[in-house]
């Protein structure tokens, strides 16, 4: 758009003449410009859609209230955490090293010995009773020596108390 | 603060939305730009000087539009899509509030041709001829002298007229 100064002055005169003209100029070129100018002016205004206005209001509101809302939310979180910690049951402390060592008393040792002796006696008695009861039910196995060949030679060997020879 | 914000939205909100829609040719993007600009207004409403709000608002909206347009040019496919959407922009295809804005085939042609104009010619035509802002406000917004605004607008209008004539001739041919 940067033309020579003469051209600029010439266009400026035409532009001013066109702006001040209420009727179409006689010059055909200027008359066409004048008509187009009126056409453009006739396009009229457009109303800002209400939804755009509402969205802008909401965005501005959020932007304005944002720090406050963030602060309130942070305060709520802190309050909940503190309340939760305060209401939680007391944690039992683990026993210290000195408390973990058990020193039995003489009475404890006597009771322990008594318990072990009881177990020992009861165990021996249970084995004896069980052996006696089972002995009655035992059946000696039949070796079936009579069916073997040369049983007459073998039998004395098995019936002999001393089998070493 | 809130009261002044609401007053400024009432006074200039529609102008910002129209500027974005004419520059971008898309309702959804125009709405985003308008919203973004209004949120910026909310942030800065206390620091804005009395009477300087409109140039500031137009600058914000226009810069947002130019960012979007620059993004379009980086992607050739998207550019083609936008061009086709610009041509399709009209009462039959637009389900948004722009239905009332569209008044006919000629208006559609004007907006389509306007959307394809280079900057700052497009902004000058929107601000001066369509929104009929005073020269001083436009000069302040676009950082031009008042005479530059007058001359550049005059030239932009001629350029637009040539484009429309070329399109008309091409359709006839």
Task: Walk me through what this model shows.
The complex is a heterodimer of chains A (165) and B (173). Chain A is an all-alpha fold and 165 residues long. Among the domains of chain A are: 5-41, no CATH class; 107-140. In chain A, 66% of the residues lie in helices and 0% in strands. Chain A is built from 5 helices and no strands. The N and C termini of chain A lie far apart (140 Å). The model of chain A has no long low-confidence stretch (mean pLDDT 78). Chain B is mainly alpha-helical and 173 residues long. Chain B has one domain (2-172). In chain B, 76% of the residues lie in helices and 0% in strands. In chain B, helix 6 (121-130) crosses helix 8 (146-172). The longest helix of chain B is centred in the C-terminal third of the chain and has 27 residues, at 146-172. Chain B is globular and about 60 Å long. Residues 90-102 of chain B have low confidence and may be disordered.
State the largest interface. Answer: A-B, 34 and 44 residues
Low-confidence spans of chain B: 90-102
* Poorly predicted sequence stretches spanning 5 or more consecutive residues of chain A: none
Order of helices and strands of chain B: HHHHHHHH
Number of E-state strands of chain A: 0
Total beta strands of chain B: 0
Topology:
The complex is a heterodimer of chains A (165) and B (173).
Chain A: H1 5-20, H2 28-41, H3 50-87, H4 106-137, H5 151-159
Chain B: H1 2-24, H2 27-44, H3 53-74, H4 76-88, H5 105-115, H6 121-130, H7 135-142, H8 146-172
Helix pairs in contact in B: 1-2, 1-3, 2-3, 3-7, 6-8, 7-8
Task: Put the structure in a nutshell.
The complex is a heterodimer of chains A (165) and B (173). Chain A has 165 residues and is an all-alpha fold. Helix content of chain A is 66%, strand content 0%.
């Amino acid at each position: 758009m940067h033309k020579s100064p003469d051209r600029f002055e010439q266009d400026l005169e035409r532009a001013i003449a066109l702006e001040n003209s209420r009727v179409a100029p006689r010059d055909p070129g200027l008359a066409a410009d004048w008509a187009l100018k009126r056409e453009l002016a006739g396009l009229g205004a457009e109303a800002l859609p209400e939804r755009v206005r509402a969205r802008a209001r909401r965005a501005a509101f959020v932007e304005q209230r944002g720090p406050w809302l963030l602060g309130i939310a942070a305060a709520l979180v802190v309050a909940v955490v503190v309340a939760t910690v305060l209401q939680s049951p007391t944690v039992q402390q683990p026993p210290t090293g000195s408390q973990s060592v058990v020193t039995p008393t003489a009475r404890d040792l006597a009771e322990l010995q008594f318990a072990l002796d009881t177990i020992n006696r009861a165990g021996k008695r249970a084995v004896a009773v069980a052996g006696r009861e089972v002995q009655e039910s035992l059946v000696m196995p039949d070796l079936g020596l009579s069916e073997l060949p040369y049983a007459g030679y073998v039998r004395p060997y098995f019936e002999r108390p001393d089998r070493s020879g | 603060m809130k009261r002044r914000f609401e007053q400024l939205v009432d006074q200039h909100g529609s102008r910002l939305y129209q500027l974005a829609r004419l520059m971008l040719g898309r309702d959804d993007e125009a709405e985003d730009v308008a919203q973004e600009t209004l949120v910026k207004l909310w942030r800065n409403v206390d620091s804005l000087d009395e009477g300087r709000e409109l140039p500031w608002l137009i600058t914000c909206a226009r810069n947002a539009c130019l960012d979007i347009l620059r993004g379009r040019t980086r992607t050739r496919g998207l550019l083609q899509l936008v061009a086709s959407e610009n041509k399709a922009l009209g009462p039959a295809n637009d389900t948004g509030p722009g239905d009332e804005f569209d008044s006919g085939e000629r208006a559609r042609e004007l907006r389509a041709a306007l959307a394809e104009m280079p900057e700052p010619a497009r902004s000058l035509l929107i601000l001066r001829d369509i929104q009929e802002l005073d020269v001083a406000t436009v000069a302040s917004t676009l950082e031009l002298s008042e005479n530059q605004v007058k001359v550049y607008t005059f030239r932009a209008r001629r350029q637009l007229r040539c484009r429309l004539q070329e399109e008309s001739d091409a359709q006839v041919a």
